[in-house]
Model the fold of this input.
Amino acid sequence: MAKKLVIKVTAGADAPERCSQAFTVAAVAVASGVEVSLWLTGESSWFALPGRAAEFALPHAAPLPDLVDSILAGGRITLCTQCAARREITEKDVLEGVRIAGAQVFVSEAMADDAQALVY
Done:
């Protein structure tokens, strides 16, 4: 049975190294054939919007837009329902392929027998 990786990233530009690590691990896992579900919460929520990843820069790190594209190409990105609501982000605002879902879905994914959850 294939292993699934569920990653919750809580950091954005406020903690750039932690944020970049989460996206990097998710993209590497997708490239390795792992089923990946990346959850955007807190300040990382903004990266669900078109153009916002391009505003992020961290020396010696892969460009965030490239990581987002890689994850969307082979995995799933989910924006937290409450985080979206607090920022007045709706489904019509987000990048194509990004879904909005809540804690019940996160818990279901993270508690699956074949899943490993990481939080950044």
The beta strands are 4-9, 35-40, 76-80, 98-101, 115-119. The first strand starts at residue 4 and ends at 9. The first helix runs from residue 16 to 31. The mean pLDDT is 97.
